[in-house]
């Protein structure tokens, strides 16, 4: 186990670039040399494995801590706040990531067949989950990253090792989270449809009944499953998206706090200021000054 983590650290250190991408599509590696304050972002649908260091993510009221030898799975693209803890140039945080594609997960599930996997319940699991990485999963990740140094073998072998890695995930401890990503009619896929709609129309007010209908669920089932997946109500989720977008806009337009509030869907400047301060700890005008370059 320790040998695998040591080799994984060396591979990540050697191949880490500022943009995190690698020569293998959907495979990411990162090196972080300092612990910046928590920042808001979208999680993406990913496997994130820590080789060195520790990371903390918050989704709504839920907090997820994971460290070297542990991995996080995100099966829906959600607004999260997070940062690496205690990273320094002398001991940077090192991580491996894999973008999870529903079609690729579905293909592995189809090849395995229903008899090879446990039966999932009807309720949607949380979209984020953390587990210890078993030796088999670490071994697969190491063999995948070794291919970065083997360009002649990469085109043929990388797709095979990626499929093996997906199999380790769908058959592992957090398999239920990943399996639902690949099932077109799972509760998670219905919630993901609603999440996508709210994300694309975050400026607009909406009735929960209409979004539930779009997701193909009754209102009660929609509320229950949306909360299970995202740790938020649909309205709270919309607010998170609005405030994250507002913060990005304020960095570019620090002198137009009122205009930014309107652009992300707030009719009331006072409500925008109140909710922004509750989310980020400072009012938007002060945060805009802190975000401004120079």
From TrEMBL:
Q: Which Gene3D superfamilies match?
A: Homeodomain-like
Q: Which PROSITE patterns match?
A: HTH_ARAC_FAMILY_1 (PS00041), HTH_ARAC_FAMILY_2 (PS01124)
Top-rank taxon, per record? Bacteria
Q: Name one GO molecular function term.
A: sequence-specific DNA binding
What InterPro entries does the database record attribute to this sequence? Homeodomain-like_sf, HTH_AraC, HTH_AraC-typ_CS, Tscrpt_reg_HTH_AraC_N
HTH araC/xylS-type domain location: 192-290
Q: Does the keyword Transcription apply?
A: yes
Q: Which keywords does this Swiss-Prot/TrEMBL entry list?
A: DNA-binding, Transcription, Transcription regulation
Q: Note one Pfam family from the annotation.
A: HTH_18
Q: Could you identify this protein by its name?
A: AraC-like DNA-binding protein
> Which organism is the protein's source?
Jiangella mangrovi
